[in-house]
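Feature request disguised as a bug report, sorry. It would help if multi-protein outputs had a clear separator. Right now it looks like this:
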Amino acid sequence: MISVLQRVSSARVLVDGQTVGSIGRGLLVLVCAERGDAEAQADKLLAKLLKLRIFTDAQGKMNRSVQDMDGAGRQGGLLIVSQFTLAADTSGGNRPSFIGAASPDEGRRLYDYFVAQARNAHSIVQTGIFAADMQVELVNDGPVTIPIRVAAQSAQSL
């Protein structure tokens, strides 16, 4: 699975001009299932992003995770948005190929699984709508943007 995390002050997803998901401080999580991915990759990705220390502590150091943003046990939000274009291969010319992305049915299944697991593990989870034409608005805090990939072959994070 591929993900791009953005530390945000706020973010929201709109579909047909209506807000379908929004958070205050937290992480905007763009996620893509690749061919060959399974629940193991989703689980590893979720575990990594929940523990990733990219929020500042009282000394201004990136030392807090989204699960303990302020050191007092207050969690930040997760806004999880499906984005198959993260699997784009641009090596063959000017038109990207998305052959590396999971099929739509498998992508939806793994996205739904990822969201369900996130809701079991974290108290503030909002989402976009799978395969919808979405507009994503965000205020990137920092800016902090971090790509994470959990490969099916070796289940290793970059």
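(second protein starts here, but nothing in the output says so)
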Amino acid sequence: MINKKLLIQSSLAGIFSFITILILTILTYKTPYGMFLIASFGSTMVLLYGYPESPFAQPKNIILGHFLTSLIGIIFLNFMYLPIFINIPLAVGFGVMLMILFKVTHPPAGGNPIIVIIGSVSYDYLLTPVLIGSLIVVMFGIVINKFILKKEYPK
């Protein structure tokens, strides 16, 4: 038997994830403003709406974790002239190390160097989708968690 409270919690997390990613997708594909969506935002939804009390789901961690690991990916892409099978794991390792060191750990952001290097993105990627997209995600997280779900967010 499925716990009713868990069913409601998981359904709301799914619905609010849908809404947040829908807005980012519309901004990306239906406006001339550029890219607002990255794959790792899907994993961010799990923490933001499923476990908003987690330190990994806090705004600082979401924004700076995504930014830092994407920056590391861009640095490795542009300045480390190593084979891709060495460059990617080094970039991920440095990204994880720096998130932990600077206390901005956001597990979904650990995949950003892979996305950046495989996609050969430009420096503009740091602004959109990473920074502006993260800010939109956090804004939705605050509104939905704090004002709709009545949760203490951010902590």
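Even a blank line would do. Unrelated, but nice: The mean pLDDT is 96.
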